[in-house]
Amino acid sequence: MFDRLARYLPVLDWGRHYDRNAFANDMVAAVIVTIMLVPQSLAYALLAGLPAEAGIYASIAPIVLYAIFGTSRALAVGPVAVVSLMTASAVGQVAQTGTAGYAAAALTLAFLSGAFLLVLGIMRMGWVANFLSHPVIAGFITASGILIATSQLKHILGISASGHNLIEMVGSLLEHLNQVNLPTLVIGVAATAFLFWVRKGLKPLLIEAGLGPRMADIIAKAGPVAAVAVTTLVTWALGLKDAGVKIVGEVPQGLPPLTMPDFAPDLVAQLALPAVLISIIGFVESISVAQTLAAKKRQRIDPDQELIGLGAANIGAAFTGGYPVTGGFARSVVNFDAGAETPAAGAFTAMGLLLASLFLTPLLYFLPKATLAATIIVAVLSLVDLSILRKTWGYSRADFLAVAATILVTLGAGVEAGVASGVLLSIGLHLYKSARPHVAEVGLVPGTQHFRNVQRHRVETRPHLLTLRVDESLFFVNARFLEDMVLERVTEGCPITDVVLMMSAVNEVDYSALETLEELNRRLRDMGVRLHLSEVKGPVMDRLERSHLIRDLSGQVFLSQYDAWRELSDTPKHRAAE
Amino acid sequence: MFDRLARYLPVLDWGRHYDRNAFANDMVAAVIVTIMLVPQSLAYALLAGLPAEAGIYASIAPIVLYAIFGTSRALAVGPVAVVSLMTASAVGQVAQTGTAGYAAAALTLAFLSGAFLLVLGIMRMGWVANFLSHPVIAGFITASGILIATSQLKHILGISASGHNLIEMVGSLLEHLNQVNLPTLVIGVAATAFLFWVRKGLKPLLIEAGLGPRMADIIAKAGPVAAVAVTTLVTWALGLKDAGVKIVGEVPQGLPPLTMPDFAPDLVAQLALPAVLISIIGFVESISVAQTLAAKKRQRIDPDQELIGLGAANIGAAFTGGYPVTGGFARSVVNFDAGAETPAAGAFTAMGLLLASLFLTPLLYFLPKATLAATIIVAVLSLVDLSILRKTWGYSRADFLAVAATILVTLGAGVEAGVASGVLLSIGLHLYKSARPHVAEVGLVPGTQHFRNVQRHRVETRPHLLTLRVDESLFFVNARFLEDMVLERVTEGCPITDVVLMMSAVNEVDYSALETLEELNRRLRDMGVRLHLSEVKGPVMDRLERSHLIRDLSGQVFLSQYDAWRELSDTPKHRAAE
C-alpha cells in the first residue's frame, strides 16, 4: 500500500531518508539557482508576452509541486525559452498582448497542458513523446532559437516591431530601423557582448585564477545577475528612462496571486491543440534533461511519473498567476552541478524566489528590457545547431528531409505548424520505408543446414522452388508488397511450382497481412503453385492457427527451412503426386 | 522505345495479337455485360443523386479510356455503389440535388479524382492504397452497404426522406411512414423479393434444368433486366404513374454530351479531400477485383498503370456528363465469366451502351424508381458482411478496434469521416505496437554457438553480462523504449558491467535511433558499463561507421555473438584491464 502510494508520490520515498547533510547541499544549490533564476524568469515572461512577474510566479508553485510528484532529483521546473515562445504564439492568436484576457488565456493554456500531461501520466502513455523523432526535435529547437533571438532584436534596438514568422519579423525590424534608440542600443549590445564573454571567456579565466571548474561554471552562470545589476544602476543613475530606454517598471510586490484560468468553451477549444503541442515539446525537453542527469548518478526516472509531476506543476502555474512551464536545461544543470541531492532543493529555490518577489521587485524598476533581451539571446543562441542538417544529410536522406522541413516550416509558418509538419513527415517517411519490407531470396549454403541471401552468398537453389526470407513483421502497409513480389516472381515465366516463406524474423502478422497471405495462397493455387511456410514463431503460429490460412494452405508448414528443402527440393516426385 | 510506350499504353501490347477468335469472345461478353449494365447504371446514378442517364454516360467514355490505358484484361469500369454513395455525400455538401450545379460539381469531382489518380500513377505511388488496412476496407464497405440500402428504402416505400447518416435516415423514414404509397410498395417489395430469389434460388434451378453453372450464373445476373421490363410494363399498363408511383420519366435520347467541369476555386477546394478519398477507395476496390481475375489466368496487373487507367477513365467521365467511376466487382466478374479476353470487350460494351442511350431510353419512361431501388438494395446487401467483426475479434483486438470504429463512424458520421478515422486509427495502432520493439534477453545454448531467449530455453548466462537480441529495426518511435529497457536492467541492482546488443534482425537504424544509441553509450559509460554490438548487418554497419557511435563506443563491435561471449564472459580479466 505504501509502496503503491510512493509510486505516485516519490516524496514519500526520498523524504524518509532526508538528513542534515542532504539539507545543507540542497540549500547551497537553492541559493545559486535562485540567483540565476530571477533575471531568467523575468526575461522569459516578457518573451511569452506577459508581465515580468509572471515568470517568477511560474517558478514558485510549479517547483514545489514537481518536488512532490516528480522523480528526478535535479530537475528544475519553470519557464523555458521554447515553451515561452510557443505560449506567445498560441495566446497571441486569441488575445492582445498586455490585456487581462491575454494573462487569463495563458493560465488556461497552463491548465490545459497540465491536465493533458496528468491524463497521459495516469494512463501511462509516456511513449507518445517518442513520436517526435530526434531530427524533428533538433530542427524545431534550432528554428525556435532563431525565431526567439530575432524576436528580441527589437528590444536591443529600442524599436517596436512584430511578426509571427521570420520573414515578417525581419521585415518589421527593417521597416522600423530608422527609429533606433541609441542609449538602448548601447546597453543592449554591451549586455549581449558581456554575456557572451561570460559564457565563453570568463570560465577559463576563473580556472586560471585557481577556482575549480565546477565553481567557475556556476559563477559564469550568474553572469546575467551582474548584467542586470550594472545596467539597472546605469539606467537609474543616468536617467536613461527619459532618453527613451524601455524599462521593466513597476513589478507588483507580494506573494503569487491566486488566479483562475478562463474556461470559456471557445477559448478552451482554440487553445486545446497548442496545449497538446506545448505539453509534448515540454515533456520531451524535460525528460531528456532529467534522464541525462539521472544517468550520471546511476538513478532512473520514470517517464510516466514525470508526466504526473509536470502536469501538477502546470496546473499549479495555472492557479498562481503563471504560464506553461517545464523542466529547463540550464537551470537543471546548474542545480545538479551546485550539488542538489533531492527535490527539496527545488522547494528551497521556490522559497528564495518567494523572498525575491516579496522584497526584490522594487529594485528591478529601472532594469532595461534590453538587458533581459540580451539574456534571452545569449541563452537561446546556444540552442541553435544547424550542424544537424549536415549530420542527417550524411546519415540518411529521410531524416534530413524531416529536419529541413521542420526548420523551414517553423521559421516560415510558426512553431505549431513546424512541429506538426515534422511529426507528420516523420511518420509518413517511416510508413513509406516500412511499406517495402525487407525480403531476401535465400538458398542453401552447401554442406550446412543454413540458408542465406542468394545475392550475397554462393548457395544452392532449385528453379522450381522459390524461398523468400521475410525480415520484417507483416502488417497492412507492407503485406501487399510481399504479395506483389511473390506474384511477380511466379508470373515471370520461370517454372516455379513451390513458394516457401521463411518466417523466422516475423514477430507479428496482423489481420490485413493474414488476409493477404490467404489471398496469395488462393492466387498461387489458381496458378498451380503451392505456398509453404517455415520457421513460424510460436506466438505467430498460435494466431495463424485460429484462422483459415493454415487449414486452406496449399502447401505445408515446416518447422525448419531445412525440412522444407529436404521435402521440396526434389521436383519429379511431388509433381507426380499432384 | 516501343516497349516504353507500351508500358504506358498497354493497348499497343495486346492490340498487336488481336484475332478473330478473341474478337468473337469479346463480342459475346460485351452483349451480356451491356444487358446487365443498363439497369445498374441507371440505379447507381439515382443513388448518386444524378439524373438516370448520367449512369450510362459514366460507363461509355471511361470504359474506352480504360481499355486503352488499363492493364486488366477483364476489369469493367463504370459507376459502382460505394463510389456513387460517396459522390452523393460529397456533392450534396456543395449543391442541391437536381440542380445544374449538382451535376457540374459531380463532373468536377470526377475530374479531380481522375487528376489525382493520374498524378499518383505517373509518380508510381500505387503503394499509398496500402494505407487502407483490410479491416478498415471491410468495415467501410459493410457500413456503406447498410447506408446505401437504408437510403433506398424511401423509394421502395414511395415516401420522401433524407439524412446524411444512419440515425438521420431512419428517423426521417419513420417520420414519413404515414405517407407510404401502396402501389409503389407492392412493386418495390415484389421486385426486391424477385431479385433475391434470382440471386439465391434461380441458379440451382437452371443448373437442374441442364444449364452449365457458368451460363446459369450469367442468366441469373440478367435478373434485373427482367424486373425492369416487367415492372415498366405493369406501370404503363395499369397507369400507376397517376396512382403515385414515381417513375424515371424522360431520359434524353442521344450521344453522351460534351461537358465541362466547374473549376471555381471554392468548389475545387471543397471537393479536393472527398476526391482523394473517392480515388483511393475506388482504386482499392478496382485493384483487388483486377488482381483476383488476373491471377486466375496467371496474368499480372501493374498497380501504377492501373492508376493511370482509372485516372484517364475519370477524366473521361468528367467531360462526357458522367461522375466518378471505378472498376466494379459485379460487372467485372460477369465480363470475365462471359469470356472476355481483352480490353476490347470493354470497348464493345461501350458501343452497346451507346446504342442503348441512342435508342432504348424512351422505353425507360415508365420504369418505376422502386425497381431501381430494389436492384441497388439486393446488390449492396451482398457487400454487407458483419462477420469481419467476429473474425477480427478472434484474431487481434487492435484490428477489431479498427473495424468497429470504421463501421460506427461511417454509420454515424458519414463515409468520409468513416474512412478517415479508420485509416488514422490503423496507423496509430500500428505505431503503438511498433513503439515496443521485440527484444529478448538471450544466453548461450550449452555446447553450441547458438544464442536463444532465456525465457524459453535453458541457456548459460553471466550475471555481469547482459545480452539483448533486438528483433526489429530501430527507428524514432521504438528506440527510446530499447534505451529505457537497457537502463532499467542496468540500474536494477545487478552488477552488470557489459551490455551486448545483438543486431542480427535490425535492418535499419534511423538517425533518432542512432542518437539514442549514442546517448545510451554515454549514459552506460557514466555508470561504468560498456556497450557492445554484435552481428550488425552490412548495410547498417556502413551507415553506423559514418557516425560517432562506433568511434565513441565504450565497448567493441563483434562479428558474431559467440565472439562477444568468448571475449566478455570471463569477468575478472576484463575488470582488471580497465
From TrEMBL, chains A, B:
The chain crosses the membrane at residues 101-120, 127-149, 180-198, 218-238, 271-295, 307-325, 345-365, 372-389, 401-427. One of its GO terms (cellular component) is membrane. Residues 455-568 form the STAS domain. It is a multi-pass membrane protein. GO terms for biological process: transmembrane transport. It comes from the Bacteria. Keywords: Membrane, Transmembrane, Transmembrane helix. Signal peptide: none annotated. It is found in: Membrane. Gene3D superfamilies: STAS domain. NCBIfam families: sulP. This is SulP family sulfate permease. It comes from Albidovulum inexpectatum.
